[in-house]
From TrEMBL:
CDD domains, A to Z: FN3
Domain Fibronectin type-III, chain residue ranges per copy: 77-175
PROSITE patterns, per the entry: FN3 (PS50853)
Lineage top rank: taxon: Bacteria
SUPFAM superfamilies with a match to the protein in the record: Fibronectin type III
Record-given protein name: Fibronectin type-III domain-containing protein
Length: 454
């Protein structure tokens, strides 16, 4: 033996040329760097010292893969959006497989961490047929990433990885609001104002931040507002709509953060007592004396049945005595709710006295009307003197020889006294007060008397 001629190529039956490449003592050979492919062959042919060439021995094919697989494509999350807050701490990702044109894909090395560009190690974590992965429970934070690196069947690792993130995780619920108070009403205290204002200190959230609130006005003490935000995070006060009369109005507020975490509880305030309705008029008003009845007593006494107020309750009455038939008293209470009788002060003589009574409840609601009674006729001094007293036969301070004197007068119209008649006296004094013995009837308007000379 003198040596060998060898050839490396991609043809199964190549005959090496007749040029010696190796000495007869060589028993191994190395190929040049072969390209990736599945048709590489080695051919060897011996030659002796006489220059005679033997038959060729062929070996192959050799499957060579020196090409790294590609990255996965279309890496995305069906559950989360990068740089967007989520309350779900487990992230799912999916992808389309990496490509390898030769030996084929073996699988992937994956990493979940808080770095944007981590290159996973060369340990296969999931097989080549996997197209999705799920994270462990991730802590609250804004820097969660997923990295995936492919490897083929012969151990070629992709030089790079595909990355997705950051995923923002906030699984912690916000706090309740603090210091919830009403700036207009006191809890469990009647008010005539139907609109209630409340204020609070903002709820707290340590990660994604507060998004806002769900609020409810209702008549239940323990309502948990549903998970629909209807108030922004920067709002710290709100007012109700016009609330109906009642003693069971409540306000409830529940916080939610930017990741959609709802506080498990709500903060409540109430009950607010609302009364916008005035009480009724008092009823069954009676008087002593009766209206339009003459009385020599200057005091009028009244009795009645109480007014009714179904909310805050009756506080009492505003009472006014005057000489007008339809005056509306102010809303200042002079008589308490338990009083059902009243006596006037001493009224002056007259036939035009009226009383007006207006109901007022405990929050100051007063009717726009009152009960009116009258007129009361008061006469404590008797009728007024007649008028136009004169003689039709004689003149004053003028001598006359006629001893028969005729006098006449105009009666005083007195609604109260209902005159019974007159007491008269003839004498020589100018200021005599007649006695209290009636000499003339009510209808008399004149008298004739004969005066004897003395």
């Amino acid at each position: 033996m003198d040596g060998y001629s060898i050839a490396w190529d991609q043809v199964p039956d190549t005959i090496p040329d007749e040029i010696k490449d190796l000495e007869e003592s060589v028993t191994q050979a190395s190929s040049p760097a072969l390209d990736s492919g599945d048709s590489h062959y080695f051919h060897i042919r011996a030659v002796n010292n006489a220059g005679k060439w033997g038959n060729t021995k062929h070996w192959g094919p050799l499957w060579i893969d020196v090409t790294k697989p590609s990255e996965v494509t279309n890496l995305n999350s069906p559950t989360h959006t990068p740089s967007t807050w989520s309350s779900t701490p487990v992230v799912k990702v999916s992808w389309e497989p990496a490509q390898d044109d030769h030996s084929g894909l073996e699988g992937y090395s994956i990493v979940w961490d808080t770095s944007p560009d981590t290159l996973p190690d060369e340990t296969v974590d999931v097989s080549s047929d996997a197209t999705e992965a799920e994270s462990p429970q991730l802590a609250d934070g804004t820097s969660h990433y997923f990295h995936i690196r492919s490897v083929d069947e012969v151990g070629n690792w992709c030089d790079t990885a595909a990355h997705i993130g950051p995923f923002w995780i906030d699984a912690t619920k916000p706090s309740e609001v603090a210091n919830l108070v009403s700036t207009t009403h006191t809890v469990s205290t009647w008010s005539p104002a139907p609109v209630v204002k409340v204020s609070w200190e903002s709820a707290q959230d340590g990660e994604s931040g507060l998004a806002g609130y769900s609020i409810v006005w209702d008549i239940s003490p323990g309502t948990l507002p549903e998970g629909t935000m209807n108030l922004g995070a920067d709002v710290i006060e709100v007012e109700s709509a016009q609330l109906a009369d009642g003693n069971s109005h409540y306000f409830h507020i529940r916080s939610v953060d930017m990741a959609g975490n709802w506080c498990d509880t709500a903060t409540d305030i109430g009950p607010f007592f609302i009364d916008t309705t005035p009480p009724t008029l008092l009823t069954d008003l009676t008087s002593d004396p009766l209206p339009e009845t003459c009385s020599s007593d200057a005091v009028v006494r009244l009795t009645w049945t109480s007014a009714i107020d179904e909310s805050s309750g009756l506080q009492g009455y505003s009472v006014l005595w005057d000489r007008s038939p339809d005056t509306l008293p102010d809303d200042t209470v002079e008589i308490g709710l338990d009083v059902t009788e009243h006596a006037s002060a001493e009224l002056p003589d007259g036939n035009d006295h009226y009383v007006h009574i207006r109901s007022v409840d405990n929050v100051g609601n007063a009717l726009d009307e009152a009960v009116h009674e009258g007129p009361f006729y008061i006469n404590t001094t008797g009728p007024e003197p007649v008028t136009d007293l004169q003689s039709t036969s004689h003149q004053k301070d003028v001598w006359s020889n006629d001893d028969t004197v005729d006098v006449q007068w105009t009666p005083v119209e007195d609604k109260c006294s209902k005159m019974a008649g007159y007491s008269v006296v003839w004498d020589d004094q100018d200021d005599t007060l007649p006695d209290e013995v009636k000499e003339l009837e009510t209808g008399a308007t004149k008298q004739r008397i004969r005066i004897h000379s003395s």
